[in-house]
Amino acid sequence: MPNITTSIVGFDSAWTDNPKAPGALCVIRQNEDGAHLYLPPRLTSFADALDVIRSESRDAQKCVVALDQPTIVPNLSGSRPVDKVAGSLISWIGGGVQPASRSKIGMFDDGAPIWRFKQALGAIEDPEQARTALSGTFLLEVFPALALAAIESVFCSRLAAPKYNPANRKRFKLADWQAVVEAVRRFGLSAPLRHVEEWCSFAARHETPSKSDQDKLDALICGLIGLHWLVAPRDQSMMIGDLQHGYMISPAVGGVHERLIAAAKLRGVPLS
User: Fold this and answer.
1) pTM, rounded to two decimals
2) Is residue 1 part of a domain?
3) 262: nearest Cα among 73, 119, 86, 121
4) In this structure, is residue 272 part of a structural domain?
């Protein structure tokens, strides 16, 4: 088997580490033959995710964790500058950004599981270094809702955000679930990522997807964001914010949306 040059772990943590509402992860492995979906999305806890990441860090030269949860939260209340910038687009398309602050007990207070996870992981949190380094374990903050608006133009217009969360029964639309799966399938194939089509074909056939199914889909989106950040030209991705106040990594396949540019300029938030 060719050497594993890079392992990308897509991790939708679900933030609170509640056993009744677990997160999900997937693993994408990359070598000289290209990238493939090594571990299809599955439910996970923070502890299980840490075990998987440690195993991947041993097997691969470089391991990159793409995490759907704020990883740098210095503000005691309110929301981070990056949340406001992302929210300028997400609210326009009809979605929402949950504000991150230390006042969120169980999510970002001093005893929250994310900080124990980061300490145990011991990863380097420097997105630009993650792109260029040949070895090491790295952590990236990603946001699937923002990525979907970037990879599928249909989702990026007024109140057009897909309603694909089965937990919200009043708003959930099966057609939106299928549209998101199809967008993820195309994005994965463009990488290119082997085995993504099989997984997406199975997911698209769900007539009554559950919240766990959505978590798994979001974990795959996280992994694809990480893969895209590493292998696509730099100008096809964006980093909103900085390593002091918080940031997000997202695809920018068609360029950075004008609403994000305007919001970043208004608030003095770096965008590259």
Assistant:
1) 0.97
2) no
3) 86
4) no
Distance CA 125, CA 7 (A): 16
User: Is the pLDDT reported for residue 2 higher than 70?
Assistant: no
Distance in angstroms (rounded) separating the CA atoms of residues 127 and 130: 5
Of the candidates 179, 115, 156, 125, the one whose C-alpha atom is nearest the C-alpha of residue 253 is 156
Q: Which domain holds residue 59?
A: 6-267
Residue 164 three-state SS: coil
Number of domains within the chain: 1
Residue 222 maps to a domain: yes
When the pLDDT of each residue in the chain is averaged and rounded to a whole number, the result is 96
Euclidean distance between CA atoms 16 and 111, whole angstroms: 11
Furthest-apart CA pair in the chain: how many Å? 51
- Whether 153 maps to a domain, the answer reads yes
The CA-atom distances, in angstroms, between 271 and each of 147, 156, 157, 164, 240 are 15, 19, 21, 28, 5
Average pLDDT over residues 94-120: 96
For residue 59, pLDDT beyond 80:
yes
